[in-house]
Amino acid sequence: MERRVLVVCFIVGFLGILASVLGFAAEAKRIKGSQVQFSAPGICTYPRSPALGLGLTASVALMIAQAIINVAAGCICCKRNRHPPKSSWTVALVCFIFSWFTFGIAFLLLLTGAALNDQHGHGSMYFGNYCYVVKPGVFAGGALLSLASATLGILYYVTLSSVKSHDPNHGIAMSQPQFQPPSAQPVFVPEDTYIRQQYP
């Protein structure tokens, strides 16, 4: 495997793990219902929580990882005709689609959880006698999908790179030789034929 491929996979893998770890940390630090107090009728008091910063950092790390893997791999539609093996193309396409699918959901979960945890001080009640808090599993779901998105992106990139490196026509110039190879067996002309041609 080329050094460039290894570097890209390492960076994207690191960012994916970082986003996942930060997502689980935000899940642990999110505002719980037991931490919210009723300071007055219709008013909820929320404590400060680091879940906002953790969720935002996780979403940024995930976005950078997705951008790196897609820039490094290039346009998948442009490479369809260059890499004829159907099995490799199918694997790359499936990984590409599910990578973007998991990325979109994970990004929305992390951002939504971070925005909803940006509650501190006094706020209005949410529907009657209940204070609003983020449900358990929002950040954890975003963390798991972040890891899945990075893994699928790496598989997509490695599949395209391996097909390119094993392409028999890759890096070979297709042109006609400028010089004809010498004949394998010399042709001898009888001496009398040569003399008759020179002196009829």
TrEMBL record:
Q: Does the keyword Acyltransferase apply?
A: no
What membrane topology term does the record carry? Multi-pass membrane protein
Residues spanning the signal sequence: none
Protein name as annotated: Uncharacterized protein
The record's section on PANTHER family has: OS07G0462200 PROTEIN-RELATED
Query: Which residue windows are transmembrane per the record?
Result: 52-77, 89-116, 136-158
Q: Where in the cell is it found?
A: Endomembrane system
- Organism of this sequence: Aquilegia coerulea
Cytoplasm as a keyword of this entry, yes or no, is no
Supply the source organism's classification.
Eukaryota, Viridiplantae, Streptophyta, Embryophyta, Tracheophyta
What keywords is this UniProt entry annotated with? Membrane, Signal, Transmembrane, Transmembrane helix
Kindly give the Pfam families that the UniProt entry links to this protein: DUF1218
Tell me the protein family, please: Belongs to the DESIGUAL family.
